[in-house]
Design goal:
Chain A: The chain crosses the membrane at residues 6-26, 33-51, 57-75, 82-103, 109-131, 152-173, 185-205, 226-247. Chain A: Keywords: Membrane, Transmembrane, Transmembrane helix. The complex is a heterodimer of chains A (248) and B (559). By secondary structure, chain A is mainly alpha-helical. Chain A has one domain (1-244). Chain A is built from twelve helices and no strands. The longest helix of chain A is centred in the middle third of the chain and has 29 residues, at 106-134. A two-stranded antiparallel ribbon of chain B has the order 1-2. In chain B, helix 2 packs antiparallel against helix 3, helix 2 (10-26) packs antiparallel against helix 5 and helix 17 runs antiparallel to helix 18. With 559 residues, chain B is mainly alpha-helical. Classes of the chains: A mainly alpha (248), B mainly alpha (559). At the A-B interface, helix 2, helix 4, helix 9, helix 10 and helix 11 of A face helix 6, helix 7 and helix 23 of B.
């Protein structure tokens, strides 16, 4: 029973190769609101399974989880499709929730997972905005968004930074806390995962915003939408600093 | 009043927000907000520094209970003053320099954010604040260097900087976590007290806590301060705007020296780490200087010059001269900032020049002026040797009877000697119609350099490390066996003397003759001109890793 529960949890708190299921599902879904809902609900199901089954998580699973996070972070570096990029990042990030679930922080893990999901939700909305304008959302396909859609580019850059654990945002404090709960091997794995996220984020940003203005000009997002995104990101940063940061 | 240090980073942050919000309405005039608040920041930093100098006690001011604190101490106030001063100059320079560039407001926002992060970094009172600032400096620099968002190459090279910085962040995070696990606190003061009381504390696998943490911090410092082999990002960042180059070379790249000074209470309990710092610094200084010689692009040459200077800075901490490293980074910051800001003018001047080399023949035939006299090389070589020996013996008789026995003091004089001789060599190349006046000026400059090094080092030591015992412990931690020390100093002195003599002799004998270069020399030049193939090596590694990631994605069907 325990093994079955761990296996089930490994689907929702993605552990390789069960993680492939989540990415395959996400690849099939193009409806943005469904994707957004999945980003919020999926890890919560995994945490719920672990909480209800009261399993003592063995050390090797934690190392497996960290390896999964590192593996997807590495593969993330060459992903160009925004939708796929978001789901790979989700897989890499959520795998780290095993570290919290194995500690005395299982209850807080729910909130940590929630704050992890917010940048992914925002990215999904931004990807949708691109698809409606250009018919696709690939880094490098059009480029020059900083010239053509400066407001969109600004929001996109900050969201990508938030999702890849830039200070102030919840994922930064989550990484520090996860490191505190770790052994030296795990610390190094977490560090490398973080490094790979940054590498991937820089390539992603470069592919999206850098370049001359595209010939096929598209309208920028509205000022109201920009303010709305800004408020969400500021609230996220405050929650990161005061709530997740307060756990340190 | 001292509590103002807590709010000091808030000022540039407010400036960034106001600049962003008002840039649409105010246009180019928005830079005045940035400059006004930067001036206020500088004034407050000067006041805080003055308070510190006048004896206000060190203190820590907190917002939160576990983390979120700022330290009021000599290192933080001194560096806050330097950072706010240099960033103010850069902003004033940028007002006109960036006037034709797109994203004018964004540039000032980023400069403000950078100033806030740097001040936060030098004054952080706990490890979380330090990590936040340490990380943010890398992120903001990435966007500053890639300010021209139409340029793929600017972003490509700013990525090199970003990823090297992130590589250096990882050991810093692990060091912070190990310290937290050992002490249960993020506070730097609590950690330093713990280490002072438990210098032999161990961490995982029975490793010494101080040695492990110091090595990790050292690696982090190497990445930030462009030590060999983590240096390649530095000379390739010239696609960024010149004011950013100035800020980076004047302030940001100095983070390695600052962080090692911040963790001095930990480094003082190490055995071999400082020796490693010395070796890495030495290699970096030599390679940086050699690579600089082969550059024809002025900004890239300055980049390699900075690398060499950073090598010297790390060498200094490796020798226990922690406060001298701070003096060095401030002095280097000021002159390198000026050099970068002037580089644009030099390039403009070069464009306007007709390009005809004004050698002796040119001046004699075209300008109808006879060549000026150059000093005899033997006199210059003798000055190089005699002045430091006189200063050394004067110090022995007038300052301290055991001066000659002190490793630290000898090393400082050694640095003064090397620096002074460089100055001497530069002036030797000059020609003057009044050679004796030039020689008098040279001797005077040399004395100023050698004595200046000693006096300034003493002043910085007294300010940053007023506890004489602690200062002696730092030198002791860096000290080596006396026999080895004398041998090393002698060998180095002989190598340097032979080098100088050869240069003087070659210049005086073969100045106007073409020489045939040997095959070995040409191969060495090829190696240097390819920058020791380091960039090719990293580019190839980058390509291979990305190809592997792509292959994995194909194998696993992109799931």
């Amino acid at each position: 029973m325990t093994n079955l529960m761990i296996l089930l949890a490994a689907v929702f708190l993605p552990l390789f190769p069960m993680s492939m299921l989540f990415n395959a599902i996400m690849a099939k879904i193009s409806q943005p609101y469904l994707r957004m809902a999945l980003f919020v609900i999926w890890p919560q199901i995994g945490l719920l399974i672990l909480a209800s089954s009261q399993i003592d998580i063995p050390e090797w699973i934690i190392i497996w989880a960290a390896a999964t996070a590192m593996f997807y972070a590495f593969r993330l570096t060459v992903i160009r499709d925004v939708g796929l990029w978001t789901s790979f990042l989700a897989t890499s990030t959520w795998a780290l929730l095993w570290i919290f679930s194995a500690s005395a922080m299982a209850e807080q893990a729910i909130y940590i997972a929630l704050t992890m999901s917010i940048p992914l939700v925002v990215l999904t909305l931004l990807a949708h905005a691109l698809v409606t304008r250009y018919g696709a959302a690939y880094a490098g396909l059009f480029g020059g968004l900083a010239q053509n859609m400066p407001r969109f580019a600004g929001v996109l850059v900050i969201t990508v930074l938030a999702a890849t654990a830039t200070p102030g945002f919840p994922n930064f404090f989550m990484m520090i806390k996860a490191s505190v709960l770790s052994t030296p091997l795990l610390m190094v794995m977490l560090g490398l995962t973080w490094l790979l996220w940054s590498w991937s984020a820089a390539r992603f940003i470069q592919g999206m915003i850098v370049g001359t203005e595209p010939e096929n000009k598209q309208p920028d997002i509205s000022l109201q939408a920009t303010w709305l995104y800004a408020v969400v990101l500021v609230v996220l940063a405050l929650a990161g600093s005061f709530f997740i940061g307060g756990l340190l | 009043m001292e509590e103002l240090i807590k709010y000091l980073p808030a000022l540039p942050l407010v400036s960034a927000i106001l600049t962003h919000l008002l840039s649409q309405n105010m246009g180019r005039a928005v830079s005045q907000i940035s400059i006004g608040i930067a001036t206020l920041t500088f004034v407050i930093a000067v006041v805080l520094f003055a308070l510190n100098v006048s004896g206000a006690p060190n203190a820590v001011y907190s917002w939160g209970s576990n983390w979120g604190s700022m330290m009021f101490d000599p290192l933080s106030t001194l560096m806050a003053m330097v950072i706010s001063g240099i960033s103010l100059i850069v902003r004033v320079y940028s007002v006109r320099y960036m006037a034709e560039e797109a994203g004018y407001g964004r540039f000032f926002v980023l400069l403000d954010l950078m100033a806030a992060s740097l001040i936060l970094m030098v004054a952080a009172g706990d490890l979380i604040m330090l990590l936040v600032a340490w990380h943010l400096v890398g992120v903001i620099l990435y966007f500053l260097l890639g300010h021209d968002n139409r340029s793929h190459s600017a972003f490509r090279y700013s990525f090199w900087t970003f990823i090297t910085y992130r590589f250096g962040d990882v050991p810093m995070v692990i060091a912070a976590v190990l310290l937290f696990q050992a002490t249960g606190s993020w506070s730097l003061n609590v950690i330093f007290d713990f280490v002072a009381q438990n210098p032999d504390a161990t961490t995982y696998f029975g490793l010494s806590l101080t040695e492990t943490v110091s090595s990790l911090i050292a690696v982090s410092a190497f990445a930030r301060s462009a030590q060999f082999i983590l240096h390649i990002w530095l000379p390739y960042t010239m696609e960024g705007p010149t004011p950013v180059s100035a800020l980076m070379h004047a302030g940001i790249v100095n983070a390695g020296g600052i962080i090692i000074n911040r963790f001095a209470p930990i480094f003082v309990h190490t055995n071999d780490i400082l020796h490693w710092l010395f070796i890495v610094g030495l290699i970096t200084a030599v390679i940086g200087s050699v690579l600089m010689l082969s550059q024809s692009d002025i900004k890239k040459a300055l980049g390699y010059s900075t690398m060499g200077q950073m090598g010297f800075m790390i060498m200094e901490v490796g020798l226990g001269a922690f406060s001298l490293a701070i003096f060095h980074l401030i002095a280097h910051g000021l002159f390198k900032g000026t050099l970068f800001l002037s580089a644009g003018n030099v390039i403009g001047e070069a464009r306007n020049n007709d390009g005809i080399p004004k050698d002796d023949l040119y001046t004699f035939i075209v300008e109808r002026r006879s060549p000026k006299v150059r000093q005899p090389w033997l006199i210059m070589a003798m000055i190089t040797l005699i002045v430091p020996v006189v200063v050394l013996f004067a110090a022995h008789y007038f300052v301290s009877a055991d001066f000659i026995q002190k490793q630290g003091a000898i090393i400082l004089l050694f640095f003064g000697w090397v620096t002074g001789a460089q100055l001497l060599f530069s002036t030797y190349s000059m020609r003057s119609s009044n050679p004796w006046r030039l020689i008098a000026l040279i001797v005077f400059s040399f004395i100023v350099v050698v004595i200046g090094y000693t006096v300034i080092s003493h002043a910085f030591d007294s300010f940053l490390y007023p506890d004489q015992q602690f200062g002696d412990q730092l030198y002791a931690a860096a000290g080596i066996d006396l026999g080895w020390f004398i041998t090393l100093i002698s060998v180095l002195a002989i190598i340097i003397i032979i080098g100088w003599l050869r240069v003087y002799y070659t210049h005086s004998t073969y100045a106007n003759k073409s020489s045939k270069q040997s095959h070995v020399w040409m191969n060495f030049y090829a190696l240097v001109s390819r920058e020791f193939y380091m960039t090719d090596l990293f580019a190839s590694l980058n390509r291979k890793l990305l190809a592997l990631a792509a292959k994995l994605n194909v194998w696993f069907k992109w799931c």
